[in-house]
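Hello Y.,

Per our agreement to keep a running log of every chain we model this quarter, I'm adding this entry. I've kept the format consistent with earlier entries: sequence first, then predicted structure.
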Amino acid sequence: MSEAPLLPAGTLILVRECEGRAPELLMVQRAESMAFGASAWVFPGGRVDPEDVALAAAILGEDGPLDDYAARVAAIRETIEEAGIAIAIDPLPDANLLGRIRAALHEGEGFAAVLDRHALRLVPEALLPFSRWQPSHAVPRRFDTRFYIARATADAAFEADGTETIAICWTAPGAMLARDDARIMFPTACNLRRIAALPDFTALAAHAALFPASFVSPEIREIEGLRYLCVPEDQGYEGMRMILESALRA
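Predicted structure for the entry above:
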């Protein structure tokens, strides 16, 4: 077990319905300069900040799942910062206002202050829990990452921020997995494979609901002389695995 501290994080898997073909997911490519996941294709998201916790507490009031809501707030905020897409905000800001919100966040203004100034409120319930990943093997940085899913509007505009993210796209899960040039980390690859088996957002939401407490802590197992990083079979991933050395490089 790694002794590195666990860092809470929230990640948003945005799903766009496509008539007659597989739904597409929003993915961003992290900058090569990033300390974690450099150059990897990931879903928008990031570490939970103290201000995310404070905003979640204000939304919940006296009682409620604070860690969960703080991760939802982080996922919503990071999706604006990294991809320029607003989700779970009421009323939904138009392109002009969203641009100003994004600029304010990039300049370091607090999310709560930005929302208050524009009379906006968060709707964290619009994000549906999908899974929670926490590594048990030795890695330099350990994230306790909550993944959420949400339906995106068909015409949602997007743009990489040019700092943390250098590329962005809508892609079918299978298409991203088939790319030889794409660096994909193990949790991302497993989520792509899990989603690829489902035909639309309704089916995805129903599947996620079957595993409401999905908690994934991959295990290292030796299989036929090779060491694999394996996902437990009771978490909705059907025993997905990857050779350990490849998983740690990805």
